[in-house]
Amino acid sequence: MAEKMNRSRSIGAMTLIELLTVISIIAVMATLVTPAANSILKGSKLTQASQMVGDGLAYARQSALTRNQPIEVRFYQFADPQQPQESLSDPTTWKYRAMQFFEVPATGASIPLGKVQRFPNAIIIDAGGAISSLLDSQTYPFLKVAPGSLVNIFGLGTNYNAVAFRFLADGSTNLTVTNSWFLTLHNITDGDYRTAPPANFFTLQIEPITGHVTYFRPGR
Are 192 and 127 in contact (CB under 8 A)? Predict the structure, then answer.
Protein backbone atom coordinates (compact mmCIF):
# COMPACT_ATOMS: atom_id res chain seq x y z
CA MET A 1 0.00 0.00 0.00
CA ALA A 2 2.83 2.41 0.95
CA GLU A 3 4.62 1.53 -2.27
CA LYS A 4 1.46 2.34 -4.21
CA MET A 5 1.13 5.76 -2.55
CA ASN A 6 4.79 6.61 -3.24
CA ARG A 7 4.34 5.68 -6.89
CA SER A 8 1.25 7.92 -7.05
CA ARG A 9 3.16 10.86 -5.56
CA SER A 10 6.00 10.31 -8.01
CA ILE A 11 3.62 10.36 -10.95
CA GLY A 12 2.00 13.53 -9.61
CA ALA A 13 5.36 15.25 -9.23
CA MET A 14 6.41 14.33 -12.75
CA THR A 15 3.11 15.60 -14.12
CA LEU A 16 3.56 18.97 -12.42
CA ILE A 17 7.10 19.32 -13.79
CA GLU A 18 5.91 18.44 -17.29
CA LEU A 19 3.07 20.95 -17.00
CA LEU A 20 5.47 23.73 -15.97
CA THR A 21 7.76 22.81 -18.86
CA VAL A 22 4.88 23.00 -21.35
CA ILE A 23 3.83 26.38 -19.97
CA SER A 24 7.37 27.69 -20.31
CA ILE A 25 7.56 26.50 -23.93
CA ILE A 26 4.23 28.13 -24.73
CA ALA A 27 5.39 31.41 -23.18
CA VAL A 28 8.57 31.38 -25.25
CA MET A 29 6.64 30.56 -28.44
CA ALA A 30 4.16 33.34 -27.74
CA THR A 31 7.01 35.81 -27.33
CA LEU A 32 8.45 34.77 -30.69
CA VAL A 33 5.15 34.56 -32.56
CA THR A 34 3.52 37.82 -31.40
CA PRO A 35 5.78 40.21 -33.39
CA ALA A 36 5.29 38.12 -36.53
CA ALA A 37 1.53 38.04 -36.00
CA ASN A 38 1.44 41.80 -35.53
CA SER A 39 3.44 42.27 -38.72
CA ILE A 40 1.06 40.03 -40.66
CA LEU A 41 -1.94 41.91 -39.25
CA LYS A 42 -0.45 45.28 -40.24
CA GLY A 43 0.25 43.99 -43.73
CA SER A 44 -3.29 42.66 -44.04
CA LYS A 45 -4.78 46.00 -43.04
CA LEU A 46 -2.55 47.84 -45.49
CA THR A 47 -3.60 45.51 -48.30
CA GLN A 48 -7.25 45.98 -47.36
CA ALA A 49 -6.92 49.77 -47.37
CA SER A 50 -5.09 49.90 -50.68
CA GLN A 51 -7.72 47.63 -52.21
CA MET A 52 -10.41 49.95 -50.85
CA VAL A 53 -8.79 52.99 -52.45
CA GLY A 54 -8.10 51.20 -55.73
CA ASP A 55 -11.62 49.82 -55.99
CA GLY A 56 -13.02 53.23 -55.05
CA LEU A 57 -11.08 54.99 -57.80
CA ALA A 58 -12.20 52.38 -60.34
CA TYR A 59 -15.80 52.84 -59.19
CA ALA A 60 -15.56 56.62 -59.47
CA ARG A 61 -14.12 56.47 -62.98
CA GLN A 62 -16.73 53.94 -64.14
CA SER A 63 -19.50 56.07 -62.61
CA ALA A 64 -18.24 59.11 -64.54
CA LEU A 65 -18.43 57.10 -67.77
CA THR A 66 -21.85 55.56 -67.17
CA ARG A 67 -23.50 58.68 -65.74
CA ASN A 68 -21.81 60.99 -68.24
CA GLN A 69 -21.09 63.34 -65.33
CA PRO A 70 -17.93 64.34 -63.46
CA ILE A 71 -17.34 62.29 -60.30
CA GLU A 72 -15.36 63.92 -57.53
CA VAL A 73 -13.13 61.87 -55.25
CA ARG A 74 -12.51 63.43 -51.85
CA PHE A 75 -9.93 62.38 -49.28
CA TYR A 76 -10.58 63.40 -45.67
CA GLN A 77 -8.05 64.46 -43.05
CA PHE A 78 -9.25 64.47 -39.44
CA ALA A 79 -8.37 63.46 -35.90
CA ASP A 80 -9.03 60.08 -34.36
CA PRO A 81 -9.83 60.52 -30.64
CA GLN A 82 -8.43 57.04 -29.97
CA GLN A 83 -4.99 58.16 -31.11
CA PRO A 84 -3.26 59.82 -28.12
CA GLN A 85 -1.23 62.25 -30.25
CA GLU A 86 -4.24 63.63 -32.15
CA SER A 87 -6.66 66.41 -31.24
CA LEU A 88 -9.87 67.60 -32.88
CA SER A 89 -8.80 71.16 -32.15
CA ASP A 90 -5.31 70.83 -33.65
CA PRO A 91 -5.32 70.36 -37.46
CA THR A 92 -1.58 69.66 -37.44
CA THR A 93 -2.34 66.28 -35.84
CA TRP A 94 -5.00 65.21 -38.33
CA LYS A 95 -4.45 62.27 -40.71
CA TYR A 96 -5.88 61.31 -44.09
CA ARG A 97 -7.91 58.20 -43.31
CA ALA A 98 -11.15 58.27 -45.33
CA MET A 99 -12.62 58.96 -48.76
CA GLN A 100 -15.99 59.70 -50.39
CA PHE A 101 -17.38 60.16 -53.89
CA PHE A 102 -19.66 62.86 -55.30
CA GLU A 103 -21.50 63.33 -58.56
CA VAL A 104 -21.08 66.88 -59.90
CA PRO A 105 -23.89 67.75 -62.36
CA ALA A 106 -23.98 70.89 -64.49
CA THR A 107 -25.60 72.80 -61.63
CA GLY A 108 -22.32 72.43 -59.73
CA ALA A 109 -23.92 71.06 -56.55
CA SER A 110 -22.04 67.99 -55.31
CA ILE A 111 -24.27 64.96 -54.68
CA PRO A 112 -22.80 62.24 -52.40
CA LEU A 113 -22.59 58.76 -53.90
CA GLY A 114 -22.73 56.62 -50.80
CA LYS A 115 -21.27 57.10 -47.35
CA VAL A 116 -17.78 58.02 -46.20
CA GLN A 117 -15.38 55.08 -46.48
CA ARG A 118 -12.90 54.98 -43.63
CA PHE A 119 -9.70 52.98 -43.94
CA PRO A 120 -8.89 50.14 -41.54
CA ASN A 121 -7.67 51.27 -38.14
CA ALA A 122 -4.07 52.57 -38.04
CA ILE A 123 -3.77 52.91 -41.84
CA ILE A 124 -3.38 56.41 -43.32
CA ILE A 125 -2.45 58.08 -46.58
CA ASP A 126 0.76 59.98 -46.04
CA ALA A 127 0.13 63.72 -46.29
CA GLY A 128 3.61 64.57 -47.57
CA GLY A 129 3.73 65.85 -51.12
CA ALA A 130 6.94 63.92 -51.72
CA ILE A 131 5.13 60.57 -51.66
CA SER A 132 1.47 61.65 -51.99
CA SER A 133 1.35 64.45 -54.55
CA LEU A 134 -2.43 64.12 -54.77
CA LEU A 135 -2.74 65.50 -51.24
CA ASP A 136 -0.30 68.39 -51.74
CA SER A 137 -2.79 71.26 -51.65
CA GLN A 138 -0.04 73.75 -50.84
CA THR A 139 1.75 73.15 -54.12
CA TYR A 140 -1.51 72.47 -55.99
CA PRO A 141 -4.15 74.67 -54.31
CA PHE A 142 -6.87 73.59 -56.74
CA LEU A 143 -6.93 70.23 -54.94
CA LYS A 144 -8.16 71.68 -51.64
CA VAL A 145 -11.91 71.62 -51.05
CA ALA A 146 -13.17 75.04 -49.99
CA PRO A 147 -14.61 75.13 -46.44
CA GLY A 148 -17.98 76.21 -47.82
CA SER A 149 -18.18 73.03 -49.90
CA LEU A 150 -17.52 70.62 -47.01
CA VAL A 151 -20.37 68.33 -45.97
CA ASN A 152 -21.16 67.22 -42.43
CA ILE A 153 -19.61 63.81 -41.78
CA PHE A 154 -19.49 61.13 -39.05
CA GLY A 155 -19.91 63.31 -36.01
CA LEU A 156 -17.16 65.74 -37.01
CA GLY A 157 -19.42 68.23 -38.71
CA THR A 158 -17.04 70.13 -40.97
CA ASN A 159 -14.12 69.95 -38.56
CA TYR A 160 -11.79 68.33 -41.10
CA ASN A 161 -9.76 69.03 -44.23
CA ALA A 162 -10.39 67.61 -47.68
CA VAL A 163 -8.64 67.47 -51.02
CA ALA A 164 -10.28 66.30 -54.22
CA PHE A 165 -9.95 65.62 -57.90
CA ARG A 166 -12.47 64.60 -60.55
CA PHE A 167 -12.94 61.90 -63.10
CA LEU A 168 -14.55 63.47 -66.15
CA ALA A 169 -17.29 61.98 -68.33
CA ASP A 170 -14.74 60.52 -70.78
CA GLY A 171 -12.81 58.72 -68.02
CA SER A 172 -9.97 61.24 -67.88
CA THR A 173 -9.26 63.47 -64.87
CA ASN A 174 -9.05 67.19 -64.17
CA LEU A 175 -5.45 66.73 -62.98
CA THR A 176 -2.68 68.53 -64.85
CA VAL A 177 -0.85 66.30 -67.32
CA THR A 178 2.55 67.79 -66.51
CA ASN A 179 2.67 66.23 -63.05
CA SER A 180 2.76 62.72 -61.58
CA TRP A 181 -0.16 62.01 -59.28
CA PHE A 182 0.07 59.37 -56.59
CA LEU A 183 -0.97 58.35 -53.07
CA THR A 184 1.06 56.36 -50.55
CA LEU A 185 -0.60 54.38 -47.77
CA HIS A 186 1.19 53.01 -44.71
CA ASN A 187 0.76 52.32 -41.02
CA ILE A 188 0.31 55.31 -38.73
CA THR A 189 3.25 54.14 -36.62
CA ASP A 190 5.53 55.00 -39.56
CA GLY A 191 4.78 58.71 -39.09
CA ASP A 192 3.38 61.23 -41.55
CA TYR A 193 4.65 63.85 -44.02
CA ARG A 194 7.49 61.54 -44.96
CA THR A 195 9.98 62.35 -47.69
CA ALA A 196 10.35 58.66 -48.61
CA PRO A 197 8.13 55.61 -48.17
CA PRO A 198 8.62 53.41 -45.09
CA ALA A 199 9.62 49.75 -45.37
CA ASN A 200 6.01 48.62 -45.78
CA PHE A 201 3.83 50.79 -48.00
CA PHE A 202 1.42 50.80 -50.92
CA THR A 203 1.47 53.49 -53.62
CA LEU A 204 -1.24 54.12 -56.20
CA GLN A 205 -0.48 56.29 -59.22
CA ILE A 206 -3.24 57.92 -61.27
CA GLU A 207 -2.65 58.62 -64.95
CA PRO A 208 -4.29 62.03 -65.54
CA ILE A 209 -5.27 61.51 -69.20
CA THR A 210 -6.72 58.00 -69.02
CA GLY A 211 -7.65 57.89 -65.34
CA HIS A 212 -6.07 54.45 -65.01
CA VAL A 213 -4.51 53.44 -61.69
CA THR A 214 -1.16 51.65 -61.26
CA TYR A 215 -0.13 49.91 -58.04
CA PHE A 216 3.33 49.79 -56.46
CA ARG A 217 4.41 47.81 -53.40
CA PRO A 218 7.86 46.69 -52.23
CA GLY A 219 8.70 43.20 -53.44
CA ARG A 220 5.87 43.22 -55.98
Answer: yes
Report the CATH number at residue 174.
3.55.40.10
Task: Write out the chain's pLDDT in tens, 220 residues.
Answer: 545 545 555 555 567 777 777 677 776 665 665 454 444 444 689 999 999 999 999 999 999 999 999 999 999 999 998 888 899 889 999 999 999 999 999 887 889 999 999 999 899 999 999 999 999 999 999 999 998 889 988 778 889 999 999 999 999 999 999 999 999 999 999 999 999 999 999 999 999 999 999 999 886 5
* 8 in a structural domain: no
Instruction: State the residue range of the domain holding 183.
Output: 48-216
Q: Is residue 124 domain-resident?
A: yes
DSSP strand E in the chain: where? 71-78, 95-103, 111-112, 117-118, 123-125, 161-167, 181-187, 202-206, 213-216
Q: How many domains does the chain have?
A: 1
